[in-house]
């Protein structure tokens, strides 16, 4: 990366911490054996994987056996949705044979998501719906709070609902969703009816390393973990509360039995080592990371307000909603100040207009912001500025000055 550039796109990805690089390198050099081999090189790899599993579990308040390593967040999210559909089908087959309750077994499995989910949830659900394999309800977030409201989720439940998947924090607005409340309400529904249990999933990709995340407190059955959002390499994991016992888990892949057959394939020891180290860092330093990012973001917002005055709109501020400590989504109003145009003329700032996976969708305003009630002309100018552990106030000053000059240039050009 050009040293002159200032990176403010930590919601897209984060650079691995030096300790993480060290753990990955050491594992590559010293633990290259197949973890399933009984001799020393294999045993060393196995020990590293076990240790990492414990560290990842500790970060999310789970037990080591609740962690299944995956290639990343996309796979973890797919695995949950696949499981819910398989579980529904198995249950209905058992009901046909008189071995289970037939409640909810009419029709297709029904999945509830929010209308601001990441594509690795939204597109899987839409694909199943298009193929006639599931019914999907996409609950709109409130245009006031940018959160899904608990009552709206409850109102969407049907007898055949088998999964609710709502992200813990949104990647563009930073809005934190009421997962604990949703889980509490659904758990009492699950108890009340002799019905197929509704499984509860949250994609915690954007929350980990930024706010405290405890899967047990939240009450979820599944929680998605994405390494490259918290200074680990590109690998992920799925937390499952008692995989295969308390909570169903059906593999998408079949092979050599690794990850207790839930996700076979020879383990990626170095990346797992890096994930474990990054998780350990989060567990030890979360409050420092969080307070540093929050104060840096507040300073950024203050400077933006001071320079752009009433031309500034924050698309990450919603009354009554908590927000990630690092995410500032902002529009500078003006007919020539579309987000992509501003960013492509900035000399120092590296940021994005929204989710990295939408960067191919042309210059259309983010559907996430539109769904949160941001007017189209404001959403078109959105800049997602997400700060990291190492972002300084000096960086903020440089970025705000860069934005001031860029805005001036674009307005003069017109
Ligand atoms: C909320 C959310 N979920 C899932 C993902 C996908 O994770 P991965 O890139 O590891 O597949 C991302 C990031 O890209 C994300 O922001």
TrEMBL record:
This enzyme's EC code(s): 4.4.1.16
GO molecular function: selenocysteine lyase activity; transferase activity
Enzyme class, UniProt record, top EC level: lyase
GO CC terms: cytosol
Pfam families, alphabetized: Aminotran_5 (PF00266)
Keywords: Cytoplasm, Lyase, Pyridoxal phosphate, Transferase
Cofactor(s) for this UniProt protein: pyridoxal 5'-phosphate
Domain Aminotransferase class V positions: 6-398
Subcellular location: Cytoplasm, Cytosol
Subunit structure as annotated in this protein's UniProt entry: Homodimer.
Family, as annotated: Belongs to the class-V pyridoxal-phosphate-dependent aminotransferase family.
Function (record text): Catalyzes the decomposition of L-selenocysteine to L-alanine and elemental selenium.
Record-given protein name: Selenocysteine lyase
Organism: Lates japonicus (Japanese lates)
